[in-house]
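>> received
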Amino acid sequence: RSPRWAVAFKFPPRIEVTKVLDIVVQVGRTGKLTPVASLQPVDVSGVTVSRATLHNEDEVLRKDVRVGDTVRVRRAGDVIPEVVEVLKEKRPRGTKPFAMPSKCPVCAAPVEREGAYHVCTNGLSCPAQLEGHVIHFAARGAMDVAGLGAKTAIQLIEQGLVRDLADVYQLTPIDFAGLEGFAEKSIENMMAALEASKRPRLDRFLFALGIEHVGETVARLLAEHYGGVEKLMEADEEELQQIHGIGPEVAESVAHFFSSARNRKVLERLFKAGVKPVHEKRAKGPQPLAGQVVVFTGGLETMTRPEAQKKAEDAGARIASAVSKRVTLVVAGPGAGSKLDEAKKLKIEVIDEAAFLRRIGEK
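>> returned
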């Protein structure tokens, strides 16, 4: 499947020409406003592209993208559509430079600039942010509430049934009966899924809360260190920075989240509804990767990335998301890219999936 002697040639990405019909601003889960170009549909490498992210205001102004412009587009990494450049010689008269709105396009709350981004200041009172939080909260790698996807989340919010994350566990069969796509059996399945999700793994619960800068890896570090939400809620920035792998930015974000009276009230209601995160301690036994800092890159054939990371942690390793001088081992699979290149540059040991399984004693 991946012969070592093979050499792959990567063709340059296809670039096509189309027009910008509009520039709309979307609001994400964290409140960040993202300008998106609405394009005249064009085929790019076999995929019809009609939208392309413009990232932030600085990027739009750097490329000087305007409504009505003729632009070149490509799929970055053969996946994400992006505007490469504007053909200014084809620009119609009367076009105006783009400017970010001063008010949220969803809830009309004031917008503030934070670094390179513009952010809605309305928090979970903004329907767009609440929608993103509910979808993230119910996702498979988080609380894993089967059936609670985007379509259902939008309906629950529009009907005023969900105003924060704790409301999810206050829902009744009658609430779902009024939603499109729900019949008797699907309502039974949804109620069962909600009940089954009340005993999440602690790290998945922390990830589900949607704390800024807290992904799966940071959530595992916090769960391993504190072993429960109560202790974590009382930690300050200085204490959090003592954890290996937690920097100032993450520590500030975590401390700020748990110091919020609104967030504490939501957590209290979640616990009252029967949500009880469970901390799974590392398995006792041989620790063949004790002291190792491991990065996974590329594909895996016999397991998912989270499963592989869990196996490495059970074997005593710490997981890192990026290659640096402190990383001691890189597990590389098919499709490994820049992380593998960086590992070779730093002369870090690189092994494949089979060697990794042998090292932890599973082969």
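>> The CA atoms of residues 238 and 251 lie 8 Å apart.
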